[in-house]
Amino acid sequence: MATKTKTLPSVVCGTVVRSAPAGHHTSTTVTGHELRVPLLAMSDVDTILADGPRDRLAELPTQEIVNFLYAAGQNWKSSEYVRRRLYIRELINQLGYSPEMAKLEANWIAMILSGYAGLYDIIASELGHRFILDEWIPREEAQVRAYPKGRSLHIMPGNVPFSAVVSVVRALVTKNQVIAKSSSEDPFTPVALAQSFADVDADHPVTRALSVVYWPAGAPGEAGERIVAASDVICAWGGQSAVDWARKAARPDAEVVRFGPKRSLAFVDAGERPEDAARGLAHDVCFRDQRACFSSQQAFVRPSPAQLVPALSEALDNYTEILPPSAQGFDDRGARALTLAEARFLGFSCWEAKDGSWAIIHCPPSFAAQHPLSRTVYLHDWPADLDPGAQVTGDTQTVALFPWAKLRPIRDAVCRAGVSRVVESGMSNVFRPGGAHDGMFPLQRMVRFASTELPSAYVTKVMTVKIEQTKFLEQDRFVEFIP
Amino acid sequence: MSRATSIPQPAGADQPPNEAEAQSPSVRIIDARTAIDELIFAEDPWYALPLERQRELSDALIRQALREHLERCPSYRDYYARSGAAEPGAVALADIPLVSTRVFKFADLRSVEAHEVERWYRSSGTSGQPSRVPRDRASLERMVGSVHGSVGLLADWDEDEVAVINLGPGREHVEDVWFQYVMSLIEALYRSESRVPRDEAALDEIIGLAQSLLDDYEHLIVVGPPFHVLDLCEHMQRRGVELQAGEGATILTAGGWKRFGGRAIPKQEFRAVVARQFGLRGEGQVRDVFNQVELNTVLFECEAHEKHVPPWVHVAARDPETLQPVPEGEEGMLSYLDASCSAYPCFIVTEDVGVVRRGRCACGREGTRVDVLRRLESRAAKGCALKMGQIHANG
Amino acid sequence: MPTDEKAKSKLPSAVSTEESVLRLEDGRQIVIWHSRPQSEEPVRGTVLLAPGFCARMYSLAAMAAYLCANGFAVYRYDPLDHRGPSSGELADFTMTTGRYSMDQVLDWLARERGVESLGVIATSLSARIAYRVASERDNVAYLVTAVGVTHLRATLERVFGVDHMASPPEQLPETVVFEERHHIRTLGFATDAHELGWNPAETTRAELDRASVPIVAFIARDDDWVLESEVEEALDLANHPERRMCKLEGSGHNLAKNPRIAQAMLRELTGAVMALETGGEWLRAGLPPSFPAIEREPTFEMLTAQVIAERRRSVR
User: Does C173 contact B at CB distance below 8 Å?
Assistant: First the structure.
């Protein structure tokens, strides 16, 4: 039963809009409160699709964007920053986060925004050069430059605030206007982010480039359809239905960048240091309560799962202390209970925390139950003849290994089979600059590359003479220049 | 005959009840009675029984079914033993170990010999691994009996007076999809026409058929999933057709909105739309029935739009963590103990969330009612983590 | 001479069924269904199924399927002035019309199909007719009845709650309503029943005393319309070792109501027919202690398919 009603604003080109001419969407949060979110209105769309917000950002130097994000990040870093405090409070009260988890989310927002060096590294590693969005960069016999695609629509994930911020930042540093379509599960993060930009400078092109809107999943209405039709890039996060919808709704020439749904798993040799093995696995299981695609859901364990269980139980208990799980709603608890009922029916060993905060199931990998997430880890036997490559598919994002040095050779087998990321166990949530995300370098999908190429006066590497094509044709000498 | 079943002799066929008759070569006593069949196929409807009697019957029939499944289904027997539940005579109904319906997606569960299985039926979901559920002849007959026994909640029709339009594939095309199969069985009860409203032409044909059957029969039943019924109503609206069925039609929905959940409209609104378009006398003529492949009994709505649960089924709403029953009227995960199923232990906990009420219904009948509110939807489904079910759905 | 027409059906059922129409000299017609086993094995025998009052041919679909599955050729018919596709209205039905219909079909079977001897399986009211037919015709080799009426007047009194047969003709209501829906004209029925001796139990007993065919009678122990004692009295089992009563526990007059009981009955009935068909003269000395187990049993799917196919045929 809802006990309080919270009404969120939308953000239209950096301006907080509290009116809702198209009405509100009402839902009940996991903590039982009523949550009202304004539905996207036609008048909002007119403002968003005006040229100004998009073009002003495109003209901004990258460093100015990075500096702006840094300034916002510094605010987020401060425990006194009111926006941060309000945000943490909403995550706790509305979304049921533990105080520790909510604080960690705010810290990660600060980290992403403030990590200017990391942002430059990402631009450089993914696009080829730190200044490529501002300058023509020599590249072999051409000079290249990256231009923003233009307008980016972000179908935000539910319950993974970090991903929402990453999505916005990627678009902004590539100078794309951002329209963040909130998830009904977490409408707070995009709004808080937009408001924190306005706190830095309400009229800054970055602030003005960000809008936060809402329509129910799969039902954009006429207003939403205009946004979709005007979007050059659609970043779709979350469940299969969100991703499928984005693919279907996007303009044929629009870029659809799909994040998730993915799963992740671990290979753990706990023979020598079971406590360390358990600690790494527990971190990857507990971080964001397995709602993120990098969270480990399964682990293949040597010498035997049963031997790891005591240490893993202890490590999971420890995480319950240091990073308590968010409140589990009716449906999450139900999903877990059904999974345990299935496992028990099938005769698998199950262990549960006394307070229900985690569960371990020792089962074969073929156990096809829906994974209930919520800090539930499936442990599988890892016999000597098991082919790690056969345990993953293209849907597997991250494979975590323990111990790192010993198991690193597994990476060839799993990556060949479709995995896009191999990390040390316990590091699943740390995306290093330079690393791939879901098999791609996402910034490349946010830009359009252009090149200016050397004139004929420049010889090529394979020709020592000036390129005079007419003459070559007249003298039929083309073949001479083929290396 | 292309196929033959084994032929066990009827229970009690060789057990005459009195000695004189037993000794007479001219008389043979055939006793095939079972308590469950006597209730399902009783002359008097089960919903006329007082609540206390329904409870007694429920308790006795479910315990009997439990004993039988423990004897015949090794996997359930093992599960029961592992669960530490008390022996069947002593266990509380609430404590009977439940099988998650998702088990049927990957385990073959049966309490009868393989050759006694008439068919394995599957759920109709378009994504993910379908459930596979066996049914023997007795289970199928009892399922039909559950329809026969509950149809009185709708009205008392003579088979000659009624024609049915089934908005789904006909008998020849249903194969093993349970929902379609059950719908197609209506033809064994009433004169039926099956049409899938797949396009405008089909919808036009259905409207014409409805008009003609309304003229020829005292009563028309249109049965189908709500999205098809809505399709039909919207099409009628586009064509400017408003039937004048009055009291002469019942629109029966079944099967939920499934992948058309985005089109779902509130029940009352739905009933109003349908009643208007068919020209019904009242919204009471728009009813819903509930069943799922793992449940053997079909639950019918009364005129107060409450789904009544017959006494051979024990329904409970359960706490999502402990799976213990929640107080009456509170939301919980729905579980069913269905004694009508002999083919597999139909002691199931489902992914449906609902409310159970007992006592006198607004329709005046006593009994248990269930309101199926929604499917369980994990918040995780909206995150970017892939759930296992999706893994299998993807291949 | 009556003529017949034949139309092959394409029923997607477990058995192969064809429909014939027997045209009578007065222009009326009787519709007959012939169901045969689909196996290539020789037919074990031929039986004629007579539906109960107000019942249609397809109400006997399961019985036909069981018999066909076990090697029998099965004929069914809809009597004149009955509910099915044959000529006439149910309201005008009389016992003699029923008798005439059965006779016509038996004659047609002998004439057109060469069936000189066959078993008759009759249900409820048609059993009363079959008892008389079996006592008067030579080509009925054996008789099986199910909830067969032996004391018509008593049964009718139980059905309608009033002994209309005791009323003088002028006091009879014009119609009575059977099963809350079917109006039956009383005068013709009652006059026929009185004049041709259908009413009393004694005439049934007398007819059965004359009959020499083996009889197996299924009764339902909870039957409110046909009492066990009446059937026992009519069959005189003590003096007729070639007769047997099979008593179905837990069933009322509607044997199809509870499918468990119906299944047990159909197994026993089919076994009985198998024994009776092969028995020959020695059956007159006594029926075997138990009937053979049936060899094949139609599945639920087969039965449903057949019911639906036959329903479609009836509606057509």
Answer: no
